[in-house]
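Data availability (excerpt). All sequences and predicted token strings are deposited with the supplementary files. A representative entry, ABC-2 type transporter transmembrane domain-containing protein, is shown inline so that the format can be inspected without opening the archive.
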Amino acid sequence: AIIALVTMSVFLRTRMTISFTHANYYMGALFFSIFMIMLNGIPEMSMQIGRLPSFYKQKSYYFYSSWAYAIPASVLKVPISILDSLVWISITYYGIGYTPTVSR
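Structure token line:
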């Protein structure tokens, strides 16, 4: 949320109008938003890799199958990712000026 507020202040819509000259700023803000949403999943990879030794040990002893490990981990990450994206978009969408009305 703090990074979204900083991004909103950098690309504040009071300095930009809807024209071809400011289209690069809008595209830069859109690229940065997509890039930040993509980067939010990177810390999850290190935690997943940290759990791999115990996964391989359980797999070799036939305790758990692979799907019993992968499906719950994936399903639990989906609501957190959606909430994170919703917070980012709700803060930056109107502030950057992708649309001039709040109702959209």
